[in-house]
Design brief:
Length: 105
């Protein structure tokens, strides 16, 4: 079992597993059930987990969220800012970046 395990942490990881298992063991000789290996980690290469909709950049997503907050707030920018967890000034800055003018200016 130890030979077939992938050891990304090399010797230090092996040492930690043996020390932890020995500390928790009930006998002086480690038995197979007493050796607890960490679950193998899956390499992250965007395998099935997409935070953004297909073909959308983070900037585009942010723009859509701002527009959606404005829609839900019926155009009330203070309310939209609260929906987004932003200050009114932070929302004003983001609105200027996407070309939506603030009537107060």
């Amino acid at each position: 079992m130890l030979v077939n395990h992938h050891w990304p942490g090399n010797v230090r990881e092996l040492q930690n597993v043996v020390e932890r298992s020995a500390a928790l063991a009930s006998h002086s000789v480690l038995e197979l059930p007493e050796i607890h290996l960490d679950a193998p980690r899956v390499k992250s290469n965007n395998s099935g987990i997409n935070f953004l909709p297909e073909g959308m950049t983070l900037e585009q997503w942010e723009d859509e969220m701002i527009r959606e907050a404005l829609r839900r707030a019926n155009g009330n920018k203070s309310h939209a800012a609260r929906l987004l967890g932003l200050s009114r000034n932070a929302l004003r800055y983001r609105l200027s970046k996407i070309g939506i003018a603030d009537e107060g200016e």
